[in-house]
Amino acid sequence: xxxxxxxxxxxxxxxxxxxxxxxxxNGKVHTRFPPEPNGYLHIGHAKSICxxxxxxxxxxxKCNLRFDDTxxxxxxxxxxxxxxxxxxxxxxxxxxxxxxxSDYFDQMYGWAEQLVMQGDAYVCDMTAEQxxxxxxxxxxxxxxxxxxxxxxxENLDLFRRMKKxxxxxxxxxxxxxxxMAHPNMNMRDPVMYRIVxxxxxxxxxxxxxxxxxxxxxxxxxxxxxxxxxxxxxxFENHRPLYDWFLLKLGVYKPRQIxxxxxxxxxxxxxxxxxxxxxxxxxxxxxxxxxxxxxxxxRRRGYxxxxxxxxxxxxxxxxxxxxxxxxxLEHCVRDELNxxxxxxxxxxxxxxxxxxxxxxxxxxxxxxxxxPEDQEAGTRKVPFSRHLYIERKDFMEDPPKKFFRMxxxxxxxxxxxxxxxxxxxxxxxxxxxxxxxxxxxxxRGGGAPDGRRVKGTLHWVSAxxxxxxxxxxxxxxxxxxxxxSEDGDWKSYIDPNSMExxxxxxxxxxxxxxxxxxxxxxxxxxYFIIDKGSRDDKLIINRTTTLRDSWAKIQKKDQGK
Length: 560
Ligand code: ATP
Ligand code: MG
Description:
With about 550 residues, the chain is an alpha/beta fold. It is elongated and about 100 Å long. It has 13 helices and 27 strands. It has helices spanning about 10-20, 45-60, 75-90, 105-120, 130-135, 150-165, 215-225, 240-250, 270-280, 295-300, 305-315, 325-340, 550-560; strands at about 30-35, 60-65, 100, 120-125, 175, 190-195, 210, 230, 255-260, 260-265, 320-325, 340-345, 345, 350-355, 365-370, 380-385, 385-390, 410-415, 415-425, 430-440, 455, 460, 465-475, 500-505, 520, 525-530, 540-545. The longest helix is centred in the N-terminal third of the chain and has 16 residues, at about 45-60. The chain starts with 10 loop residues before the first helix and ends with a helix. The protein has a seven-stranded mixed β-sheet with strand order 12-25-26-27-23-24-13, with helices on one face. The protein has a seven-stranded mixed β-sheet with strand order 21-18-19-20-14-17-22, with no helix packed on it. Adenosine-5'-triphosphate binds near residues 44 and 262. Adenosine-5'-triphosphate (ATP) binds next to helix 2, strand 8 and helix 9.
């Protein structure tokens, strides 16, 4: 990643600067991104990816990709491959450092036996309900388990038999022996291992006991020699436990640092909720362009550079906040404005006939591919007697400020000719055709006498146009924070968040674009060729409109 901007000092970089100064970890920086393969990555994960990989790169360190696959119940191979694909697409590189927590199960088990032998862990026969009942509350201490003082030998024997599969799910757990009256509930003899007789995507049926997150995570970080273990704020009061385990084991201890999760308006961000949307078919899969998933954003046409730019602009902080969706869109427009080729496409076609242009004649017009990028060059676009323009670019009886096509009005057809509207055809009250006359002296769109026209329209030649169906996507939810509204958050899904436009007419060059190529339809928005698109029937997704509302939102926020 070559984002020079991402060198701003935040509290995490300040900590690392200080560690470098004092020679902690011999000046080494090693981070990791540890997704659980129980869903697809979302834009919140992108924040974590950019942070972890970004820091490693800035400090000449390393960052691992580690699958936190300690729960066989929810995890699947499909998620592993999608996470790899999405992280690669975002542009980060873990080289040969792709790890699985499940590869450390033997080591973790050995360490658990060590804690048992030290008298720091015990096997407990209480049910999950009893354990939670005994935990106490924030204001009252917990109660000690009746199994807490089992002799070490008995604990060791039972733990080994748990591993061998002698007990059923939930019959026994291994717990750390800390303090049932600890003010931090996480320290009240937390569960380290539970019995789950379920095959695991990586270890098959080798194991029937699985480590809990708090036990596993520090172990994994320690094994990999992570220096700074960056996680989200909800783990702040798990840190004493993270430290406790590693101190008891007497092994290398990284430093856990917490930062605020990304929340975004008009979006839900947890994998569990996104999975609900997918399973209940409220969206068309994880890569539905309305999803905040990385795969959805890719399919919608958000470039990876725009997502990285967004992550760098939001920065990292210690306080949770909600970022406006419009900022992400702003980053997308910014990137696409610089990089996307321009084409002409008519979403809602209205026929135009140029009565003084010969039938059957085709002239090739030169159009600029990207005014922001001289090197992008020009292309030829066919012009003929029968054209399409956008229905909303014509008005029979226009108001004063309407500068587009109207009876008697001269307008420019982009990079082609000036034409004057002579007449129109109406059928059942609807305008079905506009008749124009071209000024042949204005080829290219300029008048030799220097006369000015106010309106410039995009157009396509009817005979050469390619048919397209265009999916227009809006925000999935109609309210800023569906989770804080009354009732079911899913009832705030906007039923019009996906609109399919059939019969769109686009210039022929668009059919040569490959699936996944983003571009601009002039005056209309940014688009991308969708999967399943064919030469004779293009399927196009709208990425975003051209109008950027970010500045307005910023102003509003500052006024608050
Ligand atoms: P979710 O709540 O969406 O299920 P998670 O935290 O359970 O997310 P993990 O797979 O455990 O998902 O996350 C991998 C990494 O990404 C973790 O380090 C986690 O802290 C980070 N992460 C997840 N969601 C966000 C977010 N919204 N903002 C920033 N980082 C996030
Ligand atoms: Mg998680």
